[in-house]
Amino acid sequence: MDIRLFKPSVGNDELESIQQVFNKAWLGLGPRVGEFEKKWSDYIGSAESVGVNSCTAALHLALSAFKFPKGKKVLVPVVTFAATAMAVLYNGLVPVFVDVDETTFGMSMEDLERKYDSDCVAVIPVHFMGHPVPMDQLMPWARARGLKVIEDTAHSAGGKYLGKALGTWGDIGCFSFEEKKCMTTGDGGMISSNDPELLRPLRHSRWVGINKDTWERYEENASYHADANSWYYEISDIGYKYNMNDLMASIGLVQLAKLDTMNRRREEIIRQYVDGLAGSNLVQPAIPYNLNDSSYWAFVVRVKERESFILHMKKKGVSTGVHYMPLTMHPLFVPYKAETPIADTLWRELVTLPLFPDLTDEEVAYVLESVASYAP
Fold first, then answer.
1. Separation of alpha carbons 270 and 257, rounded Å
2. What does the pLDDT look like over 73-102, one tens digit per residue?
3. DSSP code string of 68-109
4. Rounded mean pLDDT of the chain?
């Protein structure tokens, strides 16, 4: 077999939705984006959402909403995708790298306390691979210190923790709809909050700071509006070309309707993996997968001899990956290096195995057979 690591679950429904956009001949930021924003907000139970072109853009704009003074600090986990810390740098802030919990690979609450000081203004918890950070512990900790909480929910669209949607615990939640994630719009992201006023300026920021986007001006220019100046707009603050477009949203609307089903299928596959690895002394699940209202986008194992395992799986035709190395190992983040001994040691054991909704039971069995035949 030749088994991919990730694969988006898309088909005729998405094509038909795209065709509707083609028929309307409005491909950019338009009514489909607004429709998707509303349905996403309803789905997660959020007051407001703003569609953007990536979770990286979402994180950047989310931090910008608070207008923190330059040079202030933001607490981020050391094991995450670079965008989490990039957003801090984009805003002229300083990332403070927090070690991981050795069991869950989420942000360590103990190290969070050690790294906090009075210059910290925010914390960005990341639900690593979809495994929830204990938000019931983090939120009161942050509130007691006056910290804003931006949830990086890139890995966990549709997941819940203690019955509450991930991405709705903090002040702002940021989501990814990149190709590999729980649902996709090709690329794309969403910013959500229960404070509509907090997000209102971000609608302008995502559209180069313009106070009326093209669709708004188009509607105002309709024949029943007797106004020759409907074209007029103003720019009062710096902005970015971060908008979602109607092509993305047309895919997202279909994917959102499938999201729960896709997440349940991932749970079934992970359950097979966990059961199949129960007797292995060499390969074990990396985190304690809790398969209840979950949204895991990746299945990760721990292997002592990682390189030999990866080569073994490659020979079997099974794709693998490594997500992620500690950010302070990258040259850009070396100046911000901190003591993170758990992450520095344990990341060397992490290997990602195939996981996507269209993965068949036969393919899962083959992956497990390939794992079972591994001998370093």
1. 22
2. 999 999 999 999 999 999 999 999 999 999
3. PPTT-EEEEESSS-HHHHHHHHHTT-EEEEEPBPTTT-SB-H
4. 95
Q: What is the Cα–Cα distance from 139 to 231, expressed in whole angstroms? A: 44
Rounded mean pLDDT, 323-350:
97
Angle between helices 306-315 and 361-372 (to 10 degrees): 130
Query: In the chain, helix, strand, coil percent, each to 5?
Result: 40, 15, 40
- With respect to residue 5, please indicate whether it lies within any of the assigned structural domains: no
The model carries a pTM of 0.94
pLDDT tens digits, one per residue of 158-207:
999 999 999 999 999 999 999 999 999 999 999 999 999 999 999 999 99
Q: Which of 191, 203, 112, 101 is nearest to 154 (CA)?
A: 191
Beta-bridge partner residues of 50? 191
| 250 and 313 co-located in one domain | no
- Residues 239 and 309 occupy one common structural domain: no
Q: 172 and 215 in one domain?
A: yes
Specify the residue for token string 């956009």. 21
Tell me the C-alpha distance between 11 and 255, whole Å: 10
Do 270 and 212 sit in the same domain of this protein? no
**Residue burial 323-341, b: 16+ Cβ < 10 Å; e: rest:** bbebbbeeeebeebebebe
Q: Above 90 in pLDDT, residue 38?
A: yes
